[in-house]
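**User:**
If convenient, please work through this fold.
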Amino acid sequence: MVSNEQRRRQLAREKFERQQQRREEMRRKARRRNAVIAAGLAVVIAAGATAYASGALGGGDDGKETSADATPSDLPTPTKGPDPCAKPAPGSPATKTWKSEPEMSVDKSASYAMNLKTTCGTIDITMDAAKAPHTVNSFNFLAAQGFLDHTKCHRLTGAEAGISVLQCGDPKGTGQGGPGYTLAEENLKDPALKEPSDPEAKKAGMKIYPAGMVAMAKTQAPHSTGSQFFLVYKDSPLPPDYTPLGTIGAEGMKTLKKIADAGVQGGGPDGPPNATAVIDKATVAKS
């Protein structure tokens, strides 16, 4: 039975999402209009514009983790921009999956350090097993299995998309991959999640996932967390449905900024990053 308060929040959230979609459509139309104007000046300068349609983290309803890196058919195919990162180390992503989550092996009272050695630099993450024991335990297992090695961070969003995150953790690199098992969401009332200043966002029950936070991607369905995660490089309003996993260290934020500053392929607000952001090696250790 859905309570009146739950129904009120759901209706407010749907209204907020419709407003965000209308704003993005207005931005898209403006970009197209500007592109037409710029095309008329092509003799003088080289100009143009492409755009991506933004989507929620994890997106679809098909039970799989997804992302919005597909280009709408009515827009040009995105081109690759300058790449500030190195070539990936030799190797291929893992293909093995598992039917159920691993047995609990982490110390639930301890902190764990996840180190992502990427082509763009190191991303250091501190995870609290007391707050998200199943999620931390999953990453401890997956890192030991080499599941994250040679995987690319497949999705970058910019301010125009409404959120500012880099999404990683998919061995397929498409937003469709995962470890084969799913986890229940955890730590959804983490005090690090802040109240939004936007009245409509607040009314819709949104929270601010702060810059420096790492959280888990999922579908709209509950118990759909897998291996995909997102790194927040600027405060981002989202429904409080995504497991807050940990925090990024100072070195990691520098690496994340390098990737974000390189932008999205084609210059849109949401899609594959220009930077070749590949996790060469992931390790997890008790800290």
In short: The chain has one domain: 4-286.
